Amino acid sequence: MSPCPPGCCCPRPGFLVLCESLGLRSLPRSVPLSTSALSVARNQLCNIDHLLRPFSGLHELSVSHNQLARFPRGLPSSLETLQLQENRITYITSGVLRQLGNLTRLDLEDNRIRAIQPGALQGLGKLQVLTLKGNKLTSLPLNLPPSLTHLDLSANCISVLDLPSLSALVNLQVLKINSNCLRSVPESAFDSLPRLRSVDLANNLWVCECDILYLYRWLLSGRLKMATDLVCTEPVHLAHRLLLNLSVMAICPRVLKPNERIHQLGFSSRPERKLETPTVKPTAPGVQSSCVKKRDLGGLTDRSSQQKSAETFTTTGLLSEVRNSRQDVPLTHILPEHYSLETLSYEECLSLNATPPSVSLPHVRTTPSPPAEEPRCLDNVTGRYPQSNSTSIDGTGSLLSTNKAGPLPTPNPGPVAPQDSAVVISLLVVLCVLVALLTLAVLFVLKKVLTRQQRVAPLQQSSS
Fold it and tell me: Most CB atoms closer than 10 Å: which of 8, 169, 281, 298?
C-alpha cells in the first residue's frame, strides 16, 4: 500500500488523496504517482507549474481556494475535472490548455479573469461544463468548444452577446448570464441553439425599447420554459416594470402605423399582457444604471448561501444518493469502490481514514455537478445582487427556484374582487337614493314656500 502524505487523508492510498486546509505552500512530496483524484484545496499554494506532470493517471484535481496568480502549466493530459475556483487568476492564454483535451469540467469561478485569448478553450473537445461566474469578463469568450452543455457566465460585466461564439454551441442546454450588463439581445441570438432548455437572464440592465423586441417575441413564443421576470431599467417612464407586462406600442411606438393591426406582427392587441407565471419581484428603483452602481448597492453574500441556490441541473454524486436512501447506515459501510472528489469530503475522509469499507457498491463514475448559480460580480453586483425570488422552469416543466433574496417589489395592483365590486355598487345605489330623497325634500319645501307667498300676496292687496 502506497504511503499517505503527512496530515492528508487517504481512504485508499494511491487512488484518492485529500490534503485540504493544511496551510501548504507547496505540494506534498510523498503523494503516490498512481493517485487518480487529488485535492489540495484551501491551502496557500502560489505555483504548481509542471509539478503534477508525472501523475499520468490523475483524473480529478482540485486546487481551489489557493493563491494561484495564473493558470497552472504542465498539468497531466489525463485530467477530466479541474477545479480552480477562488484563486487570483487574471487571464487565460491560448497555450495553457493545449494538452488538456480530456477535460469534461473546468471550474474557474470567483477569480479575477478579465480576458481569455481567442481559441484558448477551443481545443477542449470533450468539455461539457464551464464555470466562469464571478469574474471580470466584458464579453463572451470567443471560440468556445461546441461540446459545452452547461455554461455559467453569471456575475460578470458582459454587455454584448457575440453571435458567432453563441451560435457555435449547438449542444448547449443551460446558459446562465444573469447579473451582467446586458441591455438587449441581438436578433436570432438563441435561434441556433436547438438543445437549449434553460436560460437565466435576470438582473441585467434591460433597455425596453425597439432593440429588445426580439427578446420580447422570443419570451412570448413559449419555445423555452424559463423565468420571465426581466425588469426594465430604461427608458425612465418604463423603469422598474416587467418587460412582459408591456405592450408592443409601449416598447416601440414607431413599429406600428396608426391603422395597422397589431396581430400582423404576432402580438396581442391588448395594451397589457397578463403573464401566467409565478409572481416575481422587480428590481428596486435606482439600482441598475451601471455595473459599478450594481455593486455599490449591496453587501457580499456568503459562499454558503451561494451554494444553496446553485446547481439547478446538478447530477447527484453516488455517495449523496446512498445517504438519501440509507440514512441509518454508517458511512463506513457505503463507500463506493471508486472514490471521487465529488463524493467524499475531507472531513468525511478523516472520520474513515482508519476504517476500510466493508461493503462495496458497483463501480460507478459520478458526473461532475454543473457550476453554482448565485451571482457574484466584483464590478457589477446589484446589491450583491438585488436578487429576485425568480422561478425558472426547466425542459421537463418542473419549477426551479433560484432562491434569491431581493428588493421590495413595485406595487402591482390586481383586478378588484367580485365581492368588493358588489359592495361598491350597493353603496353607490344607496347614495343615489339618498340624493334623490334630499332633492325631493328640497323641492317640496320650495313648493310650500311659493304657495304661501301666493296666498299672502292677495291679502296684502285687498287690505291696501
Answer: 8
Give the whole-angstrom CA distance, residue 429 versus residue 432: 5
Residues 162, 189 contacting (CB under 8 angstroms): no
Q: What DSSP element (H or E) covers 151?
A: strand 150-152
Cis peptide before 253 (omega within 30 of 0): no
163 CB burial (10 A radius; 0-12, 13-18, 19+)? middle
Q: What are phi and psi of 443, to 5 degrees?
A: -65, -40
**C-alpha angle 87/297/69, rounded to 5°?**
10
> Which of 240, 202, 172 has the alpha carbon at shortest distance from 401?
202
| Enclosing H/E stretch for 460 | helix 418-463
pLDDT per residue as tens digits for the range 260-319:
444 444 444 344 444 444 444 444 444 344 454 444 433 333 443 444 344 433 333 433
